[in-house]
Amino acid sequence: MKEKIGFSLNGYLAALVLLVLQLLSVISLVSAADQPNAPIASLVFIILVGVCWPGLFIVQPNQAKVMTFFGSYVGTVKHSGLRWTIPLFVRRNISLRIRNFESGQLKVNDNHGNPIEIAAVVVWAVEDTAEAVFEVDDYESYVSIQSEAALRNMATTYPYDLHEGDAVALRSHPQEVSESLKTEIQQRLDKAGVHVLEARISHLAYAPEIASAMLQRQQASAIVAARGKIVEGAVGMVEAALAKLSEKEIVDLDEERKAAMVSNLLVVLCGEHNTQPVINAGSLY
């Protein structure tokens, strides 16, 4: 079922016309009081005009009225302000405003089987009022349940952290993960006439039972990476030092002395603590 424009007229114009008809019917009833059948006709006309007054209704900004007639959908009115339609139409109010939904913290397993805690914020709005009202029983509940289901499914397709062979991770690629989550939620909510404007992860952490172990793993990875950078820089500095000594012919070192010098420089450059130099006052041999 798709949304269609419902029948409605300008409420101010309709109220003016009804007011004029009401006054004319009253005047006609008073002026024809002495005639035998005229009062009955005027009274019927007054009743008909009075029945039309309930057709007036107000549509607030960014809201809509979904109208049905004896169980059949007849259209939606989105024009804000005072409107008038057929009084027999049953009107149901529905909001078109942008809304937020924040899921609870869900405990799921990531792509590597590690238990994690994850939550998301979904920004959404009703786009098709007919589908939102008639295709699902409660579109607000539908949004919350399907968003959490999509979040669970998305979390199982990515690892928490990048490892060998992984291209995208939950922690390191928030933009790609958000786009994937938005796409999956939108696919689930299309049937309810809901448009997803944004979906982002609001909470992400390892489950408490493995949090300490994973923290040690992250710290170890950081230490290994830092050490790798230090060693790479130290080797470059040693290479530059040997090249400068050879270029300027300051000292002629054989292979054994070069090895000793490289060893000492690497100890100095890669050590965590300051070294204590030992001054050789005699010969190297």
TrEMBL record:
One GO CC term, this protein: membrane
Boundaries of every Band domain copy: 54-218
Protein origin, superkingdom: Bacteria
Stretches that traverse the bilayer: 42-59
Membrane topology: Single-pass membrane protein
Cell location: Membrane
Record PANTHER family: BAND 7 DOMAIN-CONTAINING PROTEIN, MEMBRANE PROTEIN-RELATED
Protein name listed in UniProt: SPFH domain-containing protein
Source species of the chain: Thalassotalea euphylliae
